[in-house]
Fold these 2 entries.
Entry 1:
Amino acid sequence: MRRLLLIPLCVMELLLFAGPGGLRDNCREVESLLVIQTMGLDDAENGVTLSLAAAGDEERGVARLKADGVSVTAAMDRIRGYSYEQELFCPHVGRLLLGERAAEQGIESTLAYISRSPALRLDMPLFVVRGGRAEDAVMNVGSADRGICDVMQMIEQDVRRRGESGLTTAAQVYRDTARCGSALICALEPGPASEKLEEGGGEGGGTPLSVAPAGYAVMREGRLCRYLTREQGIAVGFLKNEVGPASVEVKDRRGSTAVLELCSGGSRITPLWEKGRLRGFSVQCEARAGILELGGRGALRGDLDEDYLTAQLEATLSRWVSETFQASKELKADFLGLAEIAERSDPRAWRGLGQAFVDLLPELELEITVRARLSEIKDMK
Amino acid sequence: MREQYNLRQLLSFGAVIVLTPALRLFPSESAAAAGRAGWLAPLLALPLLVGWAWAAARFTEALQPGESFPALVLRLGGRRFGRPALALFTLWCLVYAAFVLRSGADRLVGTIYPGASPLLFAQVMGLLALIAALTEPRTLVRMGRMLLPPLLAILGALLFFALLSADVDNLWPVGPTDLVPILMAAPAPLDILAGAGTALLFFAGGLRDREKLFPALSVWCGGLCLLLSLLAAAVTGRFGAALTAQLARPFFVLVRTLVFFRTVERAEALVVMLWIFPDFLMTALFLWAGQFSLRLLCGYQPDEGAHPLSDLGEGRFLIWAFGAAATVTALFLAPDPAALERWSTALIPAMNLGFVFVFLPLLYIVGRSKK
């Protein structure tokens, strides 16, 4: 008899499951969801502008949504409230684009939002739209059936492969800011797409907008303070030992342009300690490259030509590395993680430095050595 | 208490219940206290844990044949302290069971059921744990033995993928200057392992091979210290110490970011649901110990044998009452996340350490001094 008491108890629990706030509220059909993959954040007069995009399909095209709000949550609620699209589903947001002004004003609150949100992922890469707004990229890039999500997937693959820039996740930006006070975020530059829309296609036809990787955005204490060019991005790749097949343009002996492709490379950074004082850093870079294009007759005429190209490559890489270090010194931003390298090399001397590393940074000397080899044989010698 | 299970089964059960506080507390606590060196804290705490294992084995030697842990508390306390000590023990079981119910519910809401009421989950789990507490301890112990291999296999796979993508710079270098911070982080593994290990002793009365308890507990502590180290290394290696210290549920955030074979992602719902089992066993253990103590306090002579659910004799109605009290306490224990955080990071660890390193040793001394 008393065992029967369990039945009403179980029924009661089932009713609780079905009630408001119960588990049934969380069940949704996949077909009824609009899977957001790209999110954009900009500053607005009274808060933020949030823009969202889902990947396009042949039937419905690309879904792009935008709203202003005093906070990200308020903007999201407004998008939800005024949208005739399906239910927004954010757990598969794969990237966050930040407008330039929003990045200048600081991204700490954005990072905290990502860390707190159960829907968003901490390993989502961040991007800064150089000289523009994220909403322009999210709302206008691409065509009716291929939007920012498709473009960004290609860009991410390209960035990972080429080594001219790098993907930095929200967790990495948080960590680097906490550890070094600075972080690098991949920069995107908007520009006209290579494609031309057919008449009547897109908004008013004409050339659609696209974005391309453009080096790095330097974030100091969570605020955008400068961009590193594509060339400096390649130097960052060397200094972090993440070199990809980027192309390098140099002049040959006759003044024609030659294009070399980096095959591999890296660097060794050694702190220069002198009687317990950090004098500077010695950077030894190594690079291997192959010839992609040669001006003039299109062929090397002997060892002298090859040696000249090698020397040009060494000089170019040395200049880029030097410029990157110079940027770090000028900004007092340790985005290369030099402090950690110095600490690891001599922890005792590090503890006796007596001043913050970023204050010491502008006075540090730099010794750069680059050794390059044109070792990669393409189909033509 | 009748001898019902062997040491291996009991320690497997213990390894399962350790996962509840380990995943809740350890990665963020260790990162907050010792930064990137936090993953070394369990290894440094190991000698202390071996000391605890020795003391726990000595304490268990005091158990007479057929005696349960609550009965031992009553006997050691004697006429003067026995009943107050048992009342305190009962209260501790009630609070801990309620806390596990509440924090488990919070985890489900925070990770996969946003917007749902935590009370709903606390009630369902409370009911299930109550049913489990009505059965024999042997059932729970054997369930723990069965659950351990799949849980460890899944945890191992998750840690493997996490460590594969971890950044060594987040964990290294560690030097002599990190020794003090690591020592500051050592109470966390001590609380987790000694706390769960002592809870395990509630079932020690049914153990067949009790004489091998000390070496077995030492090995158990060593293995779990290694697991805690790997857990902290995986989370800190992936997020860095600063971010890990800020995260409320770092392990489940880690699972959220893992991508398996470049195709499968967002598997956190499955993993979070699996972690219901350690919560369930932990709650059932404390409900069982609490109701047993309560019945002893009320003058009944409880036994751990199987009874029909409808049997309310020998104070068995108090099992239902205790289960209901734990569930109701869970509803009021932490009305908001800030209160739950306070319970999780300060009150429960402090009470746990107090129970293990103050209450039980004092009781032992009182018991010994009577002879």
Entry 2:
Amino acid sequence: MGFLKNISALALLICCFYPVQAQDKSSYILVPKGSYWIGKKQHGFNPRRQVTVDSFYIATCETTNRQFAAFVAATGYITDAERRHNALVFLPGLKEFEWHEDSTACWRFPNGVSVGGIDQKMDHPVTCISYNDAEAYCTWAGVRLPTLEEWEIASRAGAATDYFFGNDRSLLGQYANIWHGRDHLKADSSDGYMYTAPVGSFRPNPWGLYDVYGNVFEFCSGKVLADESAAIVHARGGSWWCSSASCSFFNSADIGRVNRRASFSNQGFRVAKR
Amino acid sequence: MKRIVVLFVFVAAHTIGFAQETEDYSQITKETLNYEEYRVKITRPPYGLEKVLGLISRIKETEDENLVLNQKDYMALSLREKFTYHMIHPETYSQNCDATPPVPESEKKIFGQLPDGFNDFSWSERQGKFFDANRDSVIALMSESINRSNRVGINYKRAIADINGREMIPLLISTYNKDHKDKDILTLLMLLMKNNEYTPFMTSASYKKLYAAPNQESSYRAYLVGNTANEELIIQRATAFYNGLPKKH
């Protein structure tokens, strides 16, 4: 046991000093087959329990605009938001949990045409895409969405706490692009970003995954409740919009839910290998 | 580097396995589940309900799963029917994180925030504008419905908070006092006091605990213990707040 703890500490040390700029944005980590503890004691949707999974590879970064653009260029795919003109975007001044429906918004203009396009944001996570769009990308790219359990195992990186770095929320700003304002009435760019940040801008978790908390909610496959509607899908990890005072889902226990056709400007995904 | 990461993952996985304690997480009781179900029930207004339900079912049958009733059908509805339509058919999607999981013994808690009532949907901007533009009528229709059913559905509570329906405080209190069951009515009273920045509430310990604790996990999950003292205090404050409002002539 002592040997294992020493090796873990050494590896953790190496990972912590691994330069943020050096990560390969399209790389994967291997999570070995095994039994892992997930969930949280007394959590209504995600109780603490042990699960067994096969080994899987999960992307170190969220899928970027560049990667999604390659998919669209190759297939001519039109997203739900482009067809339905009902993407939900954020502008400072909205009340908590309020989103503005913007007919001009889509993955190319994630917060509407008036806020600007993604030309200078190709390394940011793709947003304003629905679960259906994410699935279409995965089919084309020969990958898949991680399951709810896989995402949590990878995000925890072995931790049993709310966050992979423990339970001290004050450390979150080192690892995640989130909203630090008390509410959403005023813009908050105190961490350098009001909306998305380039993937890998913050420190990774001990297994080398970036942005598992914050930046964008990440779609996962799987159901939380056996009888939930087929239209409901799930996403995890919180987003740039999430704050301590409102949605605080930037952790390894909470599980968000959204309609599979909905396109929000804080919604993206990370992939796993098939 | 990749090898080191893989090695670490492998080692960490085994370390976790050794380090786990067996935890016996508490189960949510049937009483709690029933109360959670009760909390998110909406009130279906009776005004033109059958007609409106028919229109909504046709919306859902459209090829592209449209969410919004077409303008022609919408404009043909009376104000009361429009009220029913808006109250039972949210037109847009809701965000990922506004559904909070069931909380153990929620029936014994007074939360700082209302639960989500429409799952993956929420009211659109046009619906919000309808409530604002027809505020007096909406209050009258909700009051009529609450008086008849002795129930304040989650859709009504949210609408009351959205339109700042502080005139309804006496009705809310009398409805709560009928069975002392729906603690979200107390939540609504606190939200009204908070949204109107009622000083005695804004300076209270309750306010600090629910809405202003800087290091609290999340105000959206914060709660007060649902005991008689807290109930009476909320009602007393809300009554004083209401009595201090400018009277309409």
